[in-house]
Every structure is written in structure tokens, then in C-alpha cells.
């Protein structure tokens, strides 16, 4: 996995069918995300060149490109904002954006997606449109409260247990 600024992401190596207009659109969308998280997190964009072609079935979700913005709190609590381009099981690209919180249920589920957007890339939804929609959703979430219990309450999950 490689990490760095979005300007360093080898977009045409990851997505060979992108037009110059698509590349510009991805840069603009990533720029809005970077502006929304300015001064907060030093998270870098991550990409896996080996996942440019569908890697076949494997455990987990093959991530091609993504950004993970973490907000850590005391007591092991966590709030995470994700924007990823991933392969789906049948070998289609999808853009996945989500808000993820640490689990405080009686049964430990580890984490929960409390809000998510998943758009499959295809003829009706090009990668540039799906990525822009995911980026818009992510920038909206980054403007919302950065309190995991706020998001848990919104999703009807139990609040963090204070020891």
C-alpha cells in the first residue's frame, strides 16, 4: 500500500479508462475533502497498485484507493470517516463512504457503520460521478459533530461505557 497526497496518486495506473476530464473531476473532489479536513488530521490518501485489476475473490474488500480520517477519544472510543474505491465481490468497482464508530454493545461487534453510501460504478454511474458523490457525503460528515456518541445515538446504538 502506498500513501501520500492526492496529487501523488497514480490515477491512470489505478483506473486506466479515465479520461483527462475524469482525472480533473477526481482531483477536484479530493480537493474538497482535503479542505474539509484541513487542520484536523494528517491522514494520507492510500492506494494499492496491485488492486488496479480485480484481484479475484479474497478475504476482505480489495481497496484500490481510499482515505481514512480517524478521530480518537479517551477510553478506546473511535470515530472514523472513510472514502474508498473498492472492488465488489462480482468484480465491479464501487465507491464506499461511511461513518464508523467503535462498538459498545453487550456483544462486541468491534465497529459499526452508522451512515454509509455505496455506489457501484458502471455505465450509468461513472467513477468520477460516484467519487464526487462520496466526497460530497464525506465533507458533509466532516462538518457534523466529531463525537462518536452523537453518531451512535443517531443510529440507535448504545453509548460508550465510561469505566
TrEMBL record:
It comes from the Bacteria. This is Uncharacterized protein.
Amino acid at each position: 500500500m502506498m500513501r501520500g497526497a492526492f496529487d501523488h496518486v497514480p490515477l491512470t495506473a489505478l483506473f486506466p479508462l479515465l479520461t483527462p476530464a475524469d482525472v480533473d473531476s477526481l482531483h477536484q473532489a479530493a480537493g474538497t475533502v482535503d479542505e474539509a479536513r484541513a487542520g484536523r488530521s494528517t491522514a494520507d490518501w492510500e492506494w494499492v497498485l496491485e488492486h488496479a485489476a480485480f484481484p479475484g475473490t479474497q478475504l476482505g474488500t480489495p481497496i484500490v484507493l481510499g482515505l481514512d480520517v480517524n478521530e480518537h477519544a479517551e477510553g478506546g472510543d473511535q470515530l472514523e470517516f472513510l472514502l474508498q474505491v473498492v472492488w465488489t465481490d462480482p468484480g465491479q468497482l464501487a465507491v464506499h463512504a461511511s461513518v464508523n464508530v467503535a462498538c459498545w454493545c453487550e456483544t462486541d461487534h468491534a465497529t459499526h457503520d452508522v451512515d454509509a453510501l455505496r455506489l457501484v460504478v458502471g455505465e450509468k454511474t461513472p467513477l468520477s460521478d460516484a467519487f464526487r458523490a462520496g466526497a460530497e457525503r464525506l465533507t458533509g460528515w466532516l462538518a457534523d459533530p466529531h463525537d462518536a456518541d452523537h453518531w451512535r445515538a443517531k443510529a440507535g446504538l448504545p453509548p460508550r461505557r465510561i469505566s
